[in-house]
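TASK: fixed-backbone design
INPUT:
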């Protein structure tokens, strides 16, 4: 049987996460790295028909004049990540995949993201419908040119400002009517989501942006036999919270306050330095504690842009809690990790699992992917261990046919 050829289409392709995921795919396919950090490489997934790294072709949308090789070099030089031999061994492949990247759209992306745009074509589409058609054309051409059997679209772009939904987002008919009238009823992330879903492709939203998380696009996914997953990849501090908070719940310790302070210096941090964009991120990071323990302690989440840190993120958590006989105690935890390296393998996991689900004939929201996200689409459970059990149960059923 011929191995399927599959495409990974990245929104925000040449940012840190997209470029690291792309380098990772190339390195895995060439045997230049091992599978550490890939969840789908765990024994749990043995025997599951997931696409191998060598099956993938990468393309995407980008608003800056950047390429995979340039971003990889910048990360290597400024953040001291990646092995030089790995970069050299993958250079030819990265150059080939760079040719598949097309200018994206900044329509509805907000002013801070708009300032990053360097391609004139990013402002070409005058209406949301025109932007959707442009996006669909780019992805369809990618699939045709490379003779791909399947394509998955993953949004790894910068965080947009919060976007309020209304009646027009409740049904596909109402949404289409507004789009046909040229109304600005969707942010950029949702324009990409609409395009992917309308093509019948899996769409994964790795960002806190709106994407496909409203009824009209959820309905479209079912109608087009597409699958959805999101939102906001759970990579660092929030992952830690969803692991530690169950301990407090199961030990019956009362959390009084939980303060999380995050500092980092990459491009995502620069965008989040805008208070409007930051609001989207803080919302997803600040909801998990109460979601796990069932009550609302005092919480504070801060995110600050410190340019010198580059891609290295430091998160300091101060947890004040009450124990036996009313004794107040403190736990402090410091997490330091390279932002792109924490996120990129999860992007590959999600791409593989989404493609697998669609081949099995699944449609709509993939709730079993909850453990990968801060604000999991369609799921109210935030306990990481409960979420991972959902994934394990799904895999067991899939293996059973």
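OUTPUT:
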């Amino acid at each position: 049987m011929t191995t399927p050829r599959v495409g990974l289409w990245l929104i925000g392709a040449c940012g840190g996460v997209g470029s690291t995921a792309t380098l990772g795919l190339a390195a895995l396919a060439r045997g230049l790295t091992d599978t550490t950090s890939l969840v789908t490489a765990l024994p749990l997934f043995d025997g599951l028909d997931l696409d191998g790294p060598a099956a993938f072709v990468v393309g995407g949308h980008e608003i800056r004049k950047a390429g995979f090789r340039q971003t990889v070099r910048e990360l290597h030089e400024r953040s001291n990540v990646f092995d030089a031999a790995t970069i050299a061994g993958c250079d030819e492949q990265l150059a080939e995949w760079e040719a598949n990247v097309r200018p994206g759209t900044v329509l509805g992306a907000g002013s801070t993201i708009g300032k990053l745009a360097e391609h004139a074509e990013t402002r070409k589409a005058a209406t949301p419908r025109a932007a959707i058609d442009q996006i669909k054309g780019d992805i369809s051409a990618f699939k045709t040119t490379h003779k791909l059997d399947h394509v998955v679209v993953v949004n790894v772009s910068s965080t947009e400002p919060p976007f309020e939904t209304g009646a027009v987002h409740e049904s596909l008919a109402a949404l289409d009517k507004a789009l046909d009238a040229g109304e600005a009823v969707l942010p950029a992330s949702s324009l990409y989501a609409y395009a992917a879903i309308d093509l019948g492709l899996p769409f994964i939203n790795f960002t806190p942006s709106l994407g496909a998380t409203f009824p009209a696009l959820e309905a479209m996914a079912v109608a087009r036999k597409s699958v959805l997953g999101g939102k906001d990849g759970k990579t660092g501090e929030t992952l830690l919270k969803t692991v530690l908070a169950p301990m407090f719940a199961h030990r019956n310790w009362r959390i009084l306050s939980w303060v999380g302070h995050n500092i980092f210096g990459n491009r995502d941090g620069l965008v989040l330095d805008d208070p409007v964009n930051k609001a989207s991120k803080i919302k997803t990071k600040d909801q998990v504690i109460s979601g796990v323990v069932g009550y609302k302690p005092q919480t504070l989440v801060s995110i600050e842009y410190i340019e010198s840190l580059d891609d290295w993120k430091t998160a300091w958590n101060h947890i004040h809690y009450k124990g036996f006989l009313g004794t107040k105690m403190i736990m402090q935890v410091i997490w330091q990790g390279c932002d792109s390296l924490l996120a990129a393998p999860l992007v590959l996991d999600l791409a593989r699992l989404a493609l697998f689900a669609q081949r099995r004939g699944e449609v709509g929201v993939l709730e079993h992917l909850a453990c990968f996200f801060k604000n999991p689409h369609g799921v109210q459970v935030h306990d990481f261990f409960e979420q991972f059990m959902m994934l394990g149960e799904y895999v067991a059923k899939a293996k059973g046919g």
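COMMENT: The mean pLDDT is 94.
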